[in-house]
Structures are given as structure tokens and as C-alpha cells.
User: Fold this.
Amino acid sequence: MSNVIDLSLSQQQPLANSTSVGDSEVAISISGSVEEHVETAEPYEEEAQIGPLPINTLLGSGINAKDLEKLSQAGLCTVESIAYTPKKILCQIKGISEQKADKLLTSASKFVPLGFTTATEFHQRRSELITITTGSQALDTLLHGGIETGAITEVFGEFRTGKSQLCHTLAVTAQLPIDMGGGEGKVLFIDTESTFRPVRIEPIAKRFGLDPHEVMDNIAYARAFNADHQLQLLNEAAKMMAQSRFSLLIVDSIMALYRTDFSGRGELSARQLHVARFLRMLQRLADEFGIAVLITNQVVAQVDGAMFNPDPKKPIGGNIVAHASTTRLYFKKAKGANRICKIYDSPCLPEGDATFAIGQGGIMDPELENEDAEED
Assistant:
């Protein structure tokens, strides 16, 4: 039996009062009970608010609906997004003056804590973060559970090392229930190299007991055609996340379009500035909505000292990408369908590597891949 998950709502709705009563009880003070119910409903709904606050919370105090519409068009759809955005950026939005930006930031700061907290409280919040399974137990063990939410995970390597296959697998596992290692949310997939193949989703979904049609309906796909379009798609992503529940954002791959849109050393500074803006917005979405962000990256050969380096390859993007990525994973080819994942950089994961395989059902352990091949 397949696990069909309804992800159409942005958050869980509070259950209605369904207590059954007799006819005599219904006849008692109908008007009074209705008024009492209406009065107590609002605070109950406020307590039930889960996730980012909608931007219309800021209505009033000199902020009108037209202002909020302008902010939404710029990809700022929640109170948190306003609080995290510098005043300079707010003023760049057409129709938002410096005085209006001050009002927005002042109002947003009343809802979003931006000051100090104790390490104990921060540790408690960190412990509530979930991880999304990669499909391989060995890889999950290396990553202490899987791909971390609220952070950016970068995967880089040569072609045919399994980067896009990991993206396809996570697009399915992110929709699994939390107790099965999933994120119980929809998936956003930004494709810059035309590597997304819906035909790969079906066998992966069946492997995890999910309905392939339901899974594909819960994947929001967009093809990016240039670097500016790639950045613009994040504004669209922010609007979608404010309306529905998402658990994963995939960018495959992050630097491909920058290598063609910005050429030569003369445009290097402009390219890195554009990349920094894109990565900053990715991190903002991860912080704001608690989603996992997975980006893939290409590699180039290191010419300096290459003869003394057994594997003279490095990810492109320079220090901008290196500092923005929370965890960096290096994928290498191994024997047959096997691949090796190495922890390249992480603030909390120890150095190590794990062997996984690519099979019909996506990323899996080598022994499972062998069983899959025998069945075929």
C-alpha cells in the first residue's frame, strides 16, 4: 500500500470542536454561546500559528496593503523576511522610502527576536531541526541523519558522480513522513542544466511506497535560463513557501549559468557579487522557512602543485560559495555503480567518507543496489 501524503495546506489547521450534545443542551443560550465562541476563537488561532508570520501581520502604523504588495513582489512575503533584510535593500524596492523602511523594520522587530539568547535555548532550537534521508543508510550515518534543514548543503564532483541522482532521490524522500526520515513537505527544484527527469521519480517513489503521481504533483519545477532568472526564481519560491508547506529547495547546479553569463577576469567581481546575493537569499529562505537547501556544483582542476596532489580538483565559485555552504560534500567515482562521498567541510561533522550506490530506486547502499540488479 502506498503512503499518500496531502501537502496542500501551508500548515496544520486546529481541529474544530466536535463535542456532541443533546437537543436540550443545544437550546440553552444559543446566542450567548455563539458570542462566547467567537470571542475565544481568535486567541486560539493565534496560539496555533506555526511557522513564519504572514506579511499582512504588519498592516497598520503607517504600513498599508499597497506597501505589502510591493514587498511580496520582491520576494518578501513574511515578517521574518522583512526583519532579516537590510534597510538598504528595502529602500531599493520601488515605492519603499527610507521612512517606510524604518517603520517596516521597527514593526517586524516586535515579532521576530533579533537579540541575544542563551546557548541552552539555541541548543534546544537546534535539536528540533530534522534531517532528510538520502536513501542510503551509510550516507545518512556519515551525515548524522541526512541532509540538514535550515542550512545549505553543497555537493560537488565530476560528471556522473551521482549529484543529480541525489537531487532526484531527495525530491522524493523529502515528502516522506518525519518518522520515516522525510520532511513531510513539498519540493522546489531549480534546474540550470536541464538534468531533471520526471521518469526517474517514478521508480524512486515506488521504492519508498509513495504514489508517483502524488509525488510529482508535489514537486515545483522551474528551468533557469540565465543568472538573473535564477535569482528571480527565488522570489517566486518565497511566495510559494509562504502559501504552502515546503521542506526542500534544490538548485542543480548553482554555478553553471554564471560560468557562461560572466566571462573573463573583468567580470569576476560582478559575478561573485551576484553569486553572493543568490546564496544570501538561499540562506534567508532556509532560516525563514526551516527548509533544507541542496545545491550542486561543478569542479575544476588545480594547476598549482597538481603533481603532488592525488586528486587535484576543487569546486568552482571561490570563497563566496565556500563560506555560504554549511556542509560541503565531495562525490567521487568508485567501482561500477558505487560512489564515494567525503566530508569536505562542515562545522559539526567529523572528517570521513562513505560508499553508496546509484540504482533504479535512486541513491542506496551498495548491497541494496546489487539486489536490485539481480531482480531486474
About this structure: The chain has two domains: 55-109, 125-375.
